[in-house]
Amino acid sequence: MSTEPMPAAGPPGGAGAPPPTDHHGPAAATVLVGALLVLVGIGWLLDASGVRVPWRAVLPAALIAVGLATMAGAVRGRQHGLMVVGIVLAAALSVAVATDWELDVPLGGGVGDRSEQPSTPAGLAEYRLGVGSFHLDLRQLQVPDGTTTVEARVGVGELVVEVPGDVSVEVDARSGLGNVQVFGRQESGPGSRVRRSSRDGGSGDRRLVLDLRVGIGQVEVDR
């Protein structure tokens, strides 16, 4: 009878066997974050194309989606990444609510630095800039008798407005998260807002009304 020893048992599949294939696929957090980015990108594209997008509904909807995915992932013990995403969204939603949704500013209007200097009421427009610095110089504007209203919006960045010195000016300036400065008066922080009138050297017959808003950033008004 042969007494040769039996070879030692190796790992299943042999020494050269490839590692087992992971059938779990990409992490749920990765898939969900990617889907949210696509959703925001589509909304931004529609907004830039002139379609009004209900941005104030995006954060709650995203938070609900993350919550549902977190509960589903808890069964498989892979919810930690989703919890981080949920915390970030909850914090953003809290800021938006605290600022009375002032962050809901149209993102259309392009990106970069922009300057406008209208001289007649016919040259005025509803000014929009998505991201960047916008300078609106109204010092040469020929303001007619009565009320002339100017509206300007910047999504993220800076809005600077210079007004003429020979008319009455009423300003309502807001920043969802940032700083507002109007004729020397300043407010900072979430939901900053300054309402101020100036009649220095002006006549009540000609009135310039400014409606100014920045989502995140600074608003500055001066003569």
Question: What structural keywords apply?
Answer:
223 residues, alpha/beta, six-stranded mixed sheet, 26% helix, elongated
Model description:
The chain has a six-stranded mixed beta sheet with strand order 1-2-3-6-4-5, covered by helices on one side. Helices cover 26% and strands 38% of the residues. The chain has three helices and six strands, in the order αααββββββ. The protein is of the alpha/beta class and 223 residues long. The protein has helices at 28-48, 58-74, 80-98; strands spanning 111-116, 127-137, 146-162, 167-182, 185-198, 203-222. A hairpin with a 2-residue loop joins strand 4 (167-182) and strand 5. Helix 1 (28-48) runs antiparallel to helix 2, helix 1 (28-48) packs parallel to helix 3 and helix 2 (58-74) packs antiparallel against helix 3.
Stretches where pLDDT is under 50 for at least 5 consecutive residues are 21-25, 97-104
Radius of gyration: 28 Å
The average pLDDT value, as a whole number, equals 74
Main sheet characteristics: 6 strands, mixed
Run of helices and strands: HHHEEEEEE
Question: Largest beta sheet: what is the strand line-up?
Answer: 1-2-3-6-4-5
Number of DSSP helical runs: 3
Helix-residue proportion: 25-40%
